[in-house]
Amino acid sequence: MVLELTHDVLSLTGGSARVVRPTKTDGLSGIKFVCFPSVGDSARNYSELIAKLAGRGLWACAVEPPGYGLYAEHSPPSFDLLMGHWAPAVCAAIEGPKVLVGHGSGAALASAGLSVEALINAADLRGLVLLDWTPSGRDLPPLASFLPQSDEELDTLLGRTWFAPPNFGPGARRMLLTRLNENGARGHAESFDPTGWAHHLDDYRGTTLFVVGRDDRMVTVEHMREGASERDGGRLVVIDECGHYPHREQPEALAKVLAAFAEESEDD
After folding, report:
1. What is the pLDDT of residues 186-203, one digit of tens each?
2. AB hydrolase-1 domain location, by residue (predicted)?
């Protein structure tokens, strides 16, 4: 059975948010996984993960910042604005117990959601999951390196970020390169401070799950292991046959990891 998804647009402080979520919530757990995509990615690319989690009785959504996605009409705001206003507004708008999930630069947005006062010391916050990014920021690639500007750069990036790189035809390649470099995407990426967002974790005492694809050659297992070791309550999970995009390359394996995390959070 194909899961029916709803695409909503929320009007929030700091800009709108496009939300992809299950249309029907009957039989889904009260815990909500709130996923924040990275620069160059889209909430639509979480559809299969959302469906896999729903198949396990878990509710999940993906929340896209303004200026992200295939049909973005405006430039994304700076990361300072997204982290200072937008991400906390998202977390406040989605009611109930939640696990915040951030992929790539979305890890900074998920972590900024911790600044919602009602979440920090309340049962509403059940955990934080960082996918293929770490708050230490040491030796991580510049975020703009995930926005290739030529066919050669695209091939190099795909080879370093995917276990089995997708084969894009000429038309799809042109569209992808255009999307990754229009509407101020590069300027937005360059506004990202790879270490400056770590202070959002200062008051967080819960479990942080670090998840990485074994074959990610941009943000490596070693990067993520170091990040997990530096946090009290930090844990590392490595997904096999997977690069930088576990929600796209191995949605079933990632759903299994997240389901186990949800079960543990309910037992705590």
Report:
1. 889 999 988 889 988 888
2. 34-256
